[in-house]
TrEMBL record:
One of its GO terms (biological process) is tRNA processing. It comes from the Bacteria. PANTHER family: CC-ADDING TRNA NUCLEOTIDYLTRANSFERASE (PTHR47545:SF2), MULTIFUNCTIONAL CCA PROTEIN (PTHR47545). The keyword DNA repair does not apply. SUPFAM superfamilies: Poly A polymerase C-terminal region-like. InterPro entries: CCA-adding_enz_C, tRNA_CCA-adding_enzyme. GO terms for molecular function: metal ion binding; nucleotide binding; nucleotidyltransferase activity; RNA binding. Keywords: Magnesium, Metal-binding, Nucleotide-binding, Nucleotidyltransferase, RNA-binding, Transferase, tRNA processing. Residues 91-149 form the CCA-adding enzyme C-terminal domain. This is CCA-adding enzyme C-terminal domain-containing protein. Gene3D superfamilies: cca-adding enzyme, domain 2.
Length: 158
């Protein structure tokens, strides 16, 4: 990536260079999600994935906004920046109302997967815990017992 080469020449700290490169790699995602929203196809799952993949989403929207402001041409929507700002407000509210609450109240942990289901730590842990979190955010799982039943159902299909 061009930016990483520039950052190295400019002696950026590696951590900062990686964070900025991550934002640059993902800077079009807000536009893609906004397009899906305008078509009525934006899902809560897509929002959660963005927030999971880019926890520094406010910075991501700054980069996306800068890109939008730099764009020109006859196909550019004159209201694009306002739509992007409104989408940011909506996404931030989504985070505050749903994800932040889930982060505070994890129903199942990796230790539960070991002690209750006898699983060995591995890649399946992340998949199971993410599946429970997604079900929790969507309201399909509300209690620890429901989460454990949900996991048992997933394990049965493996």
């Amino acid at each position: 990536m061009i930016f990483l080469e520039m950052a190295e020449r400019l002696r950026f700290k590696k951590d900062l260079a990686k964070r900025v490169a991550h934002l640059i790699r993902n800077h079009m995602r807000p536009f893609h999600l906004l397009a899906e929203k305008e078509k009525g196809r934006l899902t809560a799952r897509a929002k959660r994935r963005l927030l999971r993949d880019v926890p520094e989403y406010p910075d991501l929207f700054v980069v996306a906004m800068a890109d939008g402001l730099a764009a020109r041409g006859p196909d550019k929507d004159p209201d694009e920046e306002e739509k992007l700002a409104e989408f940011f407000r909506e996404l931030h509210e989504f985070y505050r109302e749903t994800l932040r609450k889930v982060e505070r109240k994890r129903l199942v942990t990796g230790r539960d997967l070991i002690e209750i289901f006898g699983l060995a730590p591995g890649p399946i842990f992340r998949k199971l815990l993410e599946a429970v979190e997604e079900a929790q955010v969507e309201g399909r799982v509300k209690t620890r017992e429901e989460a454990l039943e949900y996991i048992a159902g997933i394990i049965d299909t493996l």
